[in-house]
Amino acid sequence: MVHTAAASKPQEHKLRLREVLSELVAAGLLGPDVPPGLRGRSDGAGAPHPLIVIAECELPDARHPGKKLDLETLLHWLSDWTGLEYQRIDPLSVDVGKVTSVISHSYAKHAHILPVQVTPDEIVVATCEPFLRAWERELAPIVKRQIRRVIASPLDIQRYLGEFYAIAHSIKEGAAEHGRTAGSNIQNLEQLIELGRRGKLDANDHHVVAIVDWLLRYAFEQRASDIHAEPRRDTGNFRFRIDGVLHEVYQMPAAVMAPVTSRIKILARMDLAEKRRPQDGRIKTRTPDGKEIELRVSSLPTAFGEKLVMRIFDPDVLVKDFTALGFSANDARRWDAMIRAPNGIVLVTGPTGSGKTTTLYSTLKLLATSDVNVCTIEDPIELVEPSFNQMQVQPNIELSFAAGVRALMRQDPDIIMVGEIRDLETAEVAIQAALTGHLVLSTVHTNDAPATITRLLDLGVPPYLLKSTLLGVMAQRLLRKLCSHCKKPMALSDARWREVVGDWKVPTPKSSHEPVGCVECRQTGFLGRSGIYEIMTLSPALKERLTADTDLARFQTAALQEGMVPLRIAGAQKIAAGLTSVDEVLATTPPSFRDH
Question: How far from the centroid of its chain's Cα atoms is residue 582's Cα?
């Protein structure tokens, strides 16, 4: 329902600065002493939106001392004043193909509106001018659906008018190049579908280039760690992995998917003609703000074409302060003691996507000073780092991990990083490197730190070699962090806390938090991730227990007595600190061991 104050206004006019200031004073958001220079500013053609002008002045919020009237506060006020819902535009929740097909770009730009949702019965249109409604009357008989207006930021509308219609513009250019009528009104993907079916699309067409650029740009803006391009029978699906969860971003016709895939393979310097075998490639590009980003590209032949996964590596995640990765003070101290040893083996374990690469690269970058030689053998090279000497496994020429380590041993290394210990041969050469005075870092796939011992024994590594070389093992996981904008306190019962800590004598925290969901976190309740760690140092007492028939349960108990904190208890500490939820810890970590 429109409020009385808004209903009394003429229906057809743009918001005026003096009008908005008067209403803000009447609503109690502004004091009566409005700066005279602000009241006197022009509302003429080309002038910024009144809310932007007021937000830039950083005026104090009369209702909340110490706070400023920012754009978000002003938009919520405009929503209350006009009775229209406020909606912050989330590009991941907008079906770009649909919304750009119902209203042309030129009309949306002229009317200062942006369609953000289309259903069979309704079109939701964002506006920052609630008293301009002529466009609504003009569109109603054309779209033949109910039109629902919502308030949105004028900056977002201006930005996404260009973003959402970028593909439509590129299609228009591509169609013109193929002899289409220059003045044709292309509003959706139909023309592009036809070109694809007729085989007239290739990877270098302007519109294909624009689609790929658009996807990469969105992935960077949305903090995606991976981009999945998945061919299906009739469509091609694009999904982003954000904070460990996949979100569907866009669907395009199958006829368009092939040239888009080819464009990505060209950028990654992959063999365009080879579609039957998996391939690896790499793309180096920049974000819109100029930051250099590297993507590792992997292709996989599937029933309907090549599936691509692009893993995004941001050099900024390689930090020198391990607390930024989630290490506690005790974790950082124990880890630093292991990696500062002159020789020996340090192992990191955890499933795919648990942050092992970030931990190892951050560690190597810290150790790679000018007076040491750091060499790596990887499959593939995850991130090109100028402070290391990096080599990639090449099975086709019999360059395996083991062969690579043997070659590196002749390169006068101080520190060696082996991507993964998969077999006895690799384990043996890593141990040989450690015995000859080198520090070796590597990964093993096990559920927790103590299980790494039995894994190495199962591979056939003699216990006496482990005793003489293994410095320690660290298991890790990544937990989603609660969104600080919307998380809310909750009571935590002793029974619920026992589900997390088991028999560990950890007092129930006075408060905990649970996810809610807001625009900032895309209604998930989580924003960002943090690591949790289980660090097992091989002390003399633990080495005494390391035999060919080591009992894992007893070994785990001894490791706990030596100060190892299990992953789940590390997660419990994050719950007590208000950083994550009980369900997230239970879903991510293995059960904690009984403390005997």
Answer: 22
> What is the C-alpha to C-alpha distance for residues 106 and 556, in angstroms, rounded to an integer?
67
For the domain made up of 91-164, give the CATH fold.
GMP Synthetase; Chain A, domain 3 (3.30.300)
> pTM, whole model, 2 decimals?
0.76
Q: Where are the domains of the chain?
A: 4-82, 91-164, 166-313, 317-479+530-565
pLDDT in tens, 75-129: 999 999 999 999 988 877 787 778 888 888 888 988 889 999 999 899 999 999 9
CB 373 within 8 A of CB 413: yes
Class at the top of the CATH hierarchy for domain 166-313: alpha beta
Query: Is 564:540 a contact under the CB 8 Å cutoff?
Result: no
Residue 267 burial by CB count (10 A; 0-12/13-18/19+): exposed, middle or buried? Answer: buried
7, with CB counted inside 10 A (0-12, 13-18, 19+), is: exposed
The identity of residue 454, as a single letter, is: T
Burial of 22 (0-12, 13-18, 19+ CB in 10 A): middle
Give the C-alpha separation, 142 to 158, whole Å.
24
Closest CA to 571 of 589, 555, 546, 557: 589
Tokens of 66: 């110490």
Tokens 């590596």 belong to 313
The torsion region of residue 28 among left (phi > 0), alpha (psi -120 to 50) and beta comes to left
**Counting beta carbons within 10 angstroms of the beta carbon of residue 398, is it exposed (0 to 12), middle (13 to 18) or buried (19 or more)?**
exposed
Decide: residue 83, CB within 10 A, 0-12 exposed, 13-18 middle, 19+ buried: middle
Contact 376, 389 (CB under 8 A): yes
CA 285/CA 294 separation, integer angstroms: 6
Q: Give the phi and the psi of residue 375 in degrees, each rounded to 5.
A: -125, 145
Say which DSSP state 591 is in.
P
What is the end-to-end Cα distance of the chain in Å, rounded? 65
Q: Are 68 and 199 a contacting pair, CB within 8 Å?
A: no
Of residues 324 and 229, more confidence is placed in 229
Top-level class of domain 317-479+530-565: alpha beta
Contact 206, 225 (CB under 8 A): no
Higher pLDDT, 201 or 515: 515
- E strand or H helix at 422, and its extent? none
| pLDDT tens, position by position, 207-256 | 788 788 888 888 888 889 999 999 998 888 999 999 988 888 888 778 78
Residue 536 has pLDDT above 60, yes or no: yes
Alpha helices in 246-355 (DSSP H): 254-267, 329-339
Looking at residue 204, the DSSP 8-state letter turns out to be: T
Contacting residues for 222 by C-beta, under 8 A, at least 6 apart? 91, 92, 240, 242
Residue 510 is given by DSSP the state S
* Beta carbons of 145 and 73 less than 8 angstroms apart: no
CA angle 193, 195, 196 (to 5 degrees): 65
Give Cβ neighbours of residue 18 (< 8 Å, ≥ 6 apart): 39, 43
The secondary structure of residue 170, as a DSSP letter, is H
CA distance 103 to 187: 8
- For the four alpha carbons of 377, 378, 379 and 381, in that order, the dihedral sign comes to negative
**What's the alpha-carbon Rg for the chain, to the nearest Å?**
29
**Cis peptide bond prior to 10, omega within 30° of 0:** no
